[in-house]
Amino acid sequence: MIKEVIFTNKAPKAIGPYSQAIKVGNFIFISGQIPIDPNTGEIVEGDIKEQTKRVLENIKGILESISCSLNNIVKTTVFLKNLDDFPSMNEVYGSYFPENPPARSTVEVSRLPKGVNIEIEAIAVI
Asked: What are φ and ψ of residue 74, in 5° steps?
């Protein structure tokens, strides 16, 4: 199978040796997104709700760049620095997936890149 690199200005540039997303066959593997504003390159300040919204907008931007949407997502993994943020994150997350949400795992981690509080990775199917 052919591996196609996906890049868009609608999401932050990679901060390391990885791609924003990779397409293989009908699958899109989206790298973990953190709350970086793609226009400024800066971490979005604010509470977990604001940061969750920015992360999901980054994922949405990657998918829109290949004519897909959040509806194409079949699985996400949410990494939280503090699991006490789960209810607030879940409220925002649910607003992005009001019907037929994808499968999801959520885990608490000790640290995330750039000291952020949330990272989300996703798998989508075309």
From this structure: -110, -20
Q: Write down the residue that tokens 């997350």 correspond to.
A: 93
Alpha carbons within 13 A on the beta-carbon side of 11: 27
> What are the tens digits of pLDDT across the range 74-96?
999 999 999 999 999 999 999 99
Residues of the chain with pLDDT below 50 are none
The residue extents of the domains of the chain are: 3-125
* Fold entry, domain 3-125: 60s Ribosomal Protein L30; Chain: A; (3.30.1330)
pTM greater than the 0.85 cutoff: yes
Residues 24 and 2: their CA atoms lie apart, in Å, by: 6
φ, ψ for residue 103, nearest 5 deg: -60, 150
Confidence at residue 45, expressed as pLDDT on a 0 to 100 scale: 87
How wide is the angle at C-alpha 20 spanned by C-alphas 18 and 26, nearest 5°? 110
> What are the two backbone dihedrals, phi and then psi, of residue 92, each rounded to the nearest 5 degrees?
-70, -45
